[in-house]
Amino acid sequence: MFTAVILLGCTAHGDNPGREYAPNMYHSVAYEPLSQITDTEAGAWANSLEHNDPTGKFARTGEYYNSNNYNPNRMTQRMPPPHTIKRNPYNWLPYRSKNVPKDSVPIVTANLRNPLDSTAAVVAQGQLLYSTYCQHCHGAKGAGDGKVADKFAGVANLTGDAYLKITEGHIFHVITYGAGLMGSHGSQVSPEDRWRIAKYVKALQKKK
Questions:
Q1: CB 112 within 8 A of CB 167
Q2: pLDDT tens digits for range 135-170
Q3: Fold classified for 102-206
Q4: Which of 4, 83, 126, 132 is least enclosed by beta carbons within 10 angstroms?
Q5: pLDDT of residue 19
């Protein structure tokens, strides 16, 4: 009878997941570096190896406790050393130009060169990124006829005469900071992917 009750407790059906005898093995706690749980007993009920110390409290910290006592702010993510520079996998330095008025962009980007080669692979990657981040506004062929352009007038026609002479550096800058109706995409698109999109835009212009 006892065995039958135990086995019945393991039964799962519909919305009932059944009895979980070790919940911390089924539901892992997400490691969140910017939001620490400082209560040492948080999740103590979920510990599978819990045991008492002489004070009557759990000797182990709770399953959900995730603070770092060795950092002054108890955060798990450590601050970078002073004066260090973040680099990407290509070992590029960050883009240092600030946002400038539209008329100044050609001047600021005059010597900005695309570090990627114009290979078929790079252009193909740029096409995929363009279809994700740009096509809904600028259209599949860059003619400014995407679905968003039906709602908002003034989307740039990248194949128009006014844009044929812009450089890849100019395109990179605009993706980074935005221009006109276009908002900044610097937080959504990595620097290397911005350069890939720039390559593809120039390829589109050549097909005109």
A1: yes
A2: 999 999 999 999 998 888 889 999 999 999 999 999
A3: Cytochrome Bc1 Complex; Chain D, domain 2 (1.10.760)
A4: 83
A5: 67
Task: Say which residues have a Cβ less than 8 Å from residue 121's Cβ, sequence separation at least 6.
Answer: none
Whether the Cβ atoms of residue 130 and residue 175 lie closer than 8 Å to each other? no
Taking Cα atoms as reference points, which of 63, 72, 71, 77 lies closest to residue 34?
Answer: 77
| Residue boundaries of the structural domains of the chain | 20-79, 102-206
* Token reading at 35: 């939001």
Give the integer Cα–Cα distance in Å for 78 and 36: 13
State the pTM of this model. 0.64
- Count Cα neighbours of 131 within 13 Å in the Cβ-side half-sphere: 5
Q: Residue range 93-121: average pLDDT?
A: 93
Q: Which long-range contacts (CB under 8 A, 24 or more apart) does 50-55 make?
A: none
